[in-house]
Write a structure and sequence with these properties.
There is one protein chain. The protein is an alpha+beta fold. It has a single domain, classed as Aspartate Aminotransferase, domain 1 (Alpha-Beta Complex). It is built from two helices and three strands. The protein has a three-stranded mixed beta sheet, with no helix packed on it.
Length: about 60
């Protein structure tokens, strides 16, 4: 359900890895100053049913 995209302003839930995508131009010190770690995953939750979102995230974490 949660797509791996870098897309702002969408009506669906998204996940993105900021360090190599939206913040790729920053060095390690700049990333730290911005509060972005190399292992940070950003979830943007949208208008889907909350139970569906929780179930999707839970099953993904169970696989990790």
């Amino acid at each position: 359900m949660i797509l791996r995209l870098v897309n702002i302003g969408d009506a669906k839930s998204l996940a993105c890895h900021p360090a190599p995508t939206t913040h790729r131009q920053l060095n390690d010190e700049e990333l730290a100053n911005a509060g972005v770690s190399r292992d940070l995953i950003r979830l943007s939750v949208s208008i889907e049913n909350i139970a569906d979102i929780i179930a999707d995230v839970s099953q993904a974490l169970d696989k990790a």
